[in-house]
């Protein structure tokens, strides 16, 4: 059994202790007033705003660690915090606090001939475990969404974001304390020891669902080894399809943004599909725009003849690059694009660029990804951009939660049945 850093406590006993504390906190949160939970988030936002210098200093230590570890530029971008990104985290906390409270909401209600009145009502899931890699903002996003939905959470950040996550977590705890809520409602695993991850995946008595947020290696590990149910997406292999009826100016803006705004996030476009009709009309303009922006374009077929491109290998399609690289190929109309996405996609996000309503409808109805877009950048695949304030992740499965997982998606429901001395015949 592995000992955690500096405490002489095994990973198993650490998670067992934290899990028991989280379960007790979840019991209190289930009936804590909405105003109290919102107040905790507002105070956490104010505290983070006031402590930003300390958080940025902690992040500088993590950036040094990341450089020494040889993280890629895209991963370093994920890790980095500055004033603008802290502004975004603070705004996300305030947005979640201001949202309608999901708990107690009546999803449906009806009367039965027997005289029973039945309501389906939103309730918390209980205790959520979140395992994530280098993005320290997840500490605030996940903590906020779990608290808003009445769930306790155990956070296990990546070794790269160890100090940043701890600094942000301290602000979340300050909010809980000031609002009179149990501090164990939002806990951060205080060790880089990987054994803590394995212990969380086995903690069926304490954790109700695990949410992994990171690369293919992390998510694949969680999905293969977890005994606790999992909300996850394995990869963000996002496609942009330029249809023959696409508007050229719109297409150029969207393609460039979808790939280059931030290359290291799961909503970044990884494959560009160009209709032959679009290519016949407009030539190589989309490829040339990407090349001018410094993107390595791995092109197949005719597109590989464009100066500056690199011939694509078969495994470049279905690849999550998370870097300034994109695969590109020509397809025969929307059905060609659909066939390619069905073969290589990961059910995350796909965007069609077209002015033809019928083509767009065919794209929407014949693909089954969690997010489908029209004339919009895949970089919008984000809970904040969907009006959720923040997200705990993007779920690409089909059970319970799908797409951006916000506070509402972190609830279950029960049935509340009222009679009047009613008996069953």
Under the CATH scheme, the architecture of the largest domain is: 3-Layer(aba) Sandwich
Low-confidence stretches: 1-6
Q: Which structural class fits the helix and strand makeup?
A: alpha/beta
Biggest pleated-sheet summary: 7 strands, parallel
Q: Helix segment count?
A: 14
Provide mean pLDDT, rounded: 92
Strand order of the largest sheet: 10-9-11-8-7-12-13
Alpha-carbon distance between the termini? Answer: 58 Å
CATH superfamily of the largest domain: Aldehyde Dehydrogenase, Chain A, domain 1
Radius of gyration: 23 Å
Q: Return the CATH topology of the largest domain.
A: Aldehyde Dehydrogenase, Chain A, domain 1
What is the N-to-C succession of helices and strands?
HHHHHEEEHEHEHEHEHEHHEEEHEHEEEE
> What proportion of the residues form beta strands (DSSP E)?
15-25%
Helix content: 40-55%
CATH class of the largest domain: Alpha Beta
Q: In total, how many beta strands? A: 16
> How many structural domains in the coordinates?
2
The coarse silhouette is: globular
What is the secondary structure topology, with strand pairs?
Elements (H helix, E strand, L loop, with lengths): L10 H19 L4 H17 L1 H18 L3 H7 L3 H16 L7 E6 L5 E8 L2 E6 L4 H12 L3 E5 L5 H18 L6 E3 L6 H7 L7 E5 L2 H10 L12 E5 L5 H13 L8 E7 H7 L2 H8 L3 E4 L10 E2 L13 E7 L1 H12 L4 E5 L3 H10 L4 E4 L19 E2 L7 E2 L6 E8 L7
Parallel strand pairs: 3-4, 3-6, 4-5, 7-8, 7-12, 8-11, 9-10, 9-11, 12-13
Antiparallel strand pairs: 1-2, 2-16, 14-15
Mind explaining what this structure looks like?
The protein folds into two domains: about 10-230 and about 405-415, Aldehyde Dehydrogenase, Chain A, domain 1 (3-Layer(aba) Sandwich); about 240-380, 3-Layer(aba) Sandwich (Aldehyde Dehydrogenase, Chain A, domain 2). It is globular and about 70 Å long. Helices cover about 40% and strands about 20% of the residues. The chain is an alpha/beta fold. The strands form four sheets. It has a seven-stranded parallel beta sheet with strand order 10-9-11-8-7-12-13, with helices on both faces. A four-stranded parallel beta sheet has the order 5-4-3-6, sandwiched between helices. The protein has a three-stranded antiparallel beta sheet with strand order 1-2-16, with no helix packed on it. The protein has helices at about 10-30, 35-50, 50-70, 75-80, 85-100, 135-150, 160-180, 195-200, 215-225, 250-260, 275-280, 285-290, 335-345, 355-365; strands at about 105-110, 115-125, 125-130, 150-155, 185-190, 210-215, 240, 270-275, 295-300, 310, 325-330, 350-355, 370-375, 395, 405, 410-420. Helix 2 crosses helix 7, helix 5 (about 85-100) runs parallel beside helix 6 and helix 6 packs parallel to helix 7 (about 160-180).
């Amino acid at each position: 059994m592995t000992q955690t850093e500096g405490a002489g406590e095994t990973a198993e006993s650490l998670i067992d202790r934290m899990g028991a504390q989280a379960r007790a906190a979840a019991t209190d949160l289930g009936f804590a007033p909405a105003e109290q939970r919102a107040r905790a988030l507002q105070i956490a936002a104010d505290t983070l705003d006031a402590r930003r210098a300390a958080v940025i200093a902690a992040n500088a230590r993590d950036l040094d660690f990341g450089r020494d570890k040889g993280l890629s530029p895209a991963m370093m971008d994920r890790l980095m915090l500055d004033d603008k990104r802290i502004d975004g985290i603070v705004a996300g906390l305030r947005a979640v606090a201001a949202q309608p409270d999901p708990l107690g909401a009546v999803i449906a209600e009806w009367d039965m001939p027997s005289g029973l009145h039945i309501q389906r009502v939103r309730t918390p899931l209980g205790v959520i475990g979140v395992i994530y890699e280098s993005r320290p903002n997840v500490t605030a996003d996940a903590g906020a969404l779990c608290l808003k939905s009445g769930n306790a959470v155990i956070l296990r950040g990546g070794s790269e974001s160890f100090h940043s996550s701890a600094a942000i977590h301290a602000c979340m705890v300050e909010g809980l304390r000031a609002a009179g809520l149990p501090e164990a409602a939002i806990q951060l695993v205080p060790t880089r020891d990987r054994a803590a991850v394995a212990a969380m995946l086995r903690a069926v008595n304490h954790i109700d669902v695990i949410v992994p947020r990171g690369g293919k290696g992390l998510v694949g590990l969680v999905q293969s080894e977890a005994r606790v149910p999992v909300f996850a997406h394995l990869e963000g292999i996002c496609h942009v399809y330029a249809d023959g009826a696409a508007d050229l100016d719109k297409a150029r803006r969207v393609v460039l943004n979808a790939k280059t705004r931030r290359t290291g996030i799961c909503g970044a476009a990884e494959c560009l599909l160009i209709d032959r009709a679009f290519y016949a009309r407009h030539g190589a303009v989309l490829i040339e725009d990407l090349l001018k922006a410094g993107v390595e374009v791995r092109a197949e077929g005719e597109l590989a003849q464009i100066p500056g491109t690199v011939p694509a290998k078969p495994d470049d399609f279905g690849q999550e690059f998370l870097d300034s690289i994109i695969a590109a190929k020509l397809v025969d109309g929307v059905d060609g694009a659909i066939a390619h996405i069905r073969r290589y996609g990961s059910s995350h996000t796909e965007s069609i660029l077209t002015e033809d309503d019928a083509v767009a409808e065919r794209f929407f109805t014949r693909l089954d990804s969690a997010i489908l877009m029209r004339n919009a950048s895949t970089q919008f695949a984000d809970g904040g951009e969907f009006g959720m304030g923040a997200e705990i992740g993007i779920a690409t499965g089909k059970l319970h939660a799908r797409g951006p997982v916000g506070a509402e998606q972190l609830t279950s429901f029960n049935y509340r049945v009222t009679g009047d001395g009613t008996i069953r015949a």
